[in-house]
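Exercise 7b. Backbone tokens:
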């Protein structure tokens, strides 16, 4: 009888050992998968705000694995905007016994700037919230890719200005008291033909820089194709103000542009139309007509479309 009991105990011990090995193996697989996916699990006990992290979360914050962490120090890693959003979502989740998801920006203990995706669920006991737990995932690469994709969709990589798509979007949202300037470079074709396309690219990049410097603070400047640029003035402006702006732009284009061992010069013609409660399409058409009138009358000048009747 004793022998049978000992045998049973040995079987149970072997079973427990096997279970422990299986658990350790599963834990190892989980840690490896977490490291590859950059996902970690976290928990915060609400009664004392005590934190529990898996190894991957420590690595996200550049902290020694297993070191003591507290919530206030951790919150100090979040950017001010992310901190405000996190506090609001957390309070709401606890009040509603729910959860939330947040993409937050952090600066780690080593000074690295990262983006993490935080998911959280509130756990209750007898209807009382007792802990909040979830996952944290490092999405920095995903964020960089998304920002780069959005930039390529909305900006011209050569000049750094908003592109045609962004321009038409801004024009559609244009204030009904605003104005539109369409610009076309004078002499750009000769630059390309004489100096080559690399010189043309350098010319466009310099034009973008000069327009940004001249039109900063008040206007939306975009490259809308080739050597054509558009400026949206979103707000009330007099014809005298528009004329002064056009003259500043023409003057800004006058200085020679360095290229190789020499320089070349370009000019700009400008057509202007005031919104005056009309559709963006009508304003664009009128600015385009005014632009070609400016080019026909000698270039290096501007023309204002006549007021709507």
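Sequence design result:
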């Amino acid at each position: 009888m004793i022998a049978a009991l000992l045998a049973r105990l040995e079987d149970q011990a072997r079973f427990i050992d096997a279970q422990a090995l299986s658990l350790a193996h599963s834990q190892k697989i989980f840690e490896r998968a977490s490291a590859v996916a950059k996902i970690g699990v976290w928990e915060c006990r609400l009664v004392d705000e005590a934190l529990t992290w898996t190894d991957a979360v420590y690595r996200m914050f550049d902290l020694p694995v297993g070191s003591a962490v507290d919530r206030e120090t951790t919150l100090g890693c979040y950017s001010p905007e992310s901190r405000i959003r996190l506090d609001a979502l957390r309070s709401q989740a606890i009040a509603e016994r729910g959860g939330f998801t947040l993409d937050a920006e952090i600066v780690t203990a080593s000074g690295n700037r990262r983006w993490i995706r935080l998911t959280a669920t509130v756990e209750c006991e007898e209807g009382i919230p007792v802990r909040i737990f979830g996952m944290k995932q490092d999405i920095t690469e995903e964020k960089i890719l998304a920002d780069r994709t959005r930039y390529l969709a909305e900006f011209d990589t050569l000049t750094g200005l908003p592109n045609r798509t962004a321009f038409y979007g801004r024009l559609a949202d244009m204030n009904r008291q605003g104005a539109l300037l369409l610009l076309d470079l004078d002499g750009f074709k000769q630059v390309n033909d004489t100096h080559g396309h690399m010189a043309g690219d350098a010319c466009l990049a310099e034009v973008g820089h000069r327009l940004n410097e001249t039109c900063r603070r008040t206007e939306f400047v975009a490259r809308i194709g080739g050597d054509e640029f558009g400026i949206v003035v979103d707000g009330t402006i007099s014809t005298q103000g528009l004329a002064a702006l056009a003259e500043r732009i023409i003057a800004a284009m006058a200085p020679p542009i360095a290229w190789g061992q020499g320089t070349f010069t370009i000019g700009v013609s400008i057509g202007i139309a005031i919104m005056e409660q009309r559709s963006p399409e009508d304003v664009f058409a009128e600015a385009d007509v005014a632009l070609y009138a400016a080019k026909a009358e000698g270039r290096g000048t501007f023309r204002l479309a006549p007021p709507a009747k």
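Instructor comment: Residues 2-37 form the longest helix (36 residues). The CA atoms of residues 192 and 199 lie 7 Å apart.
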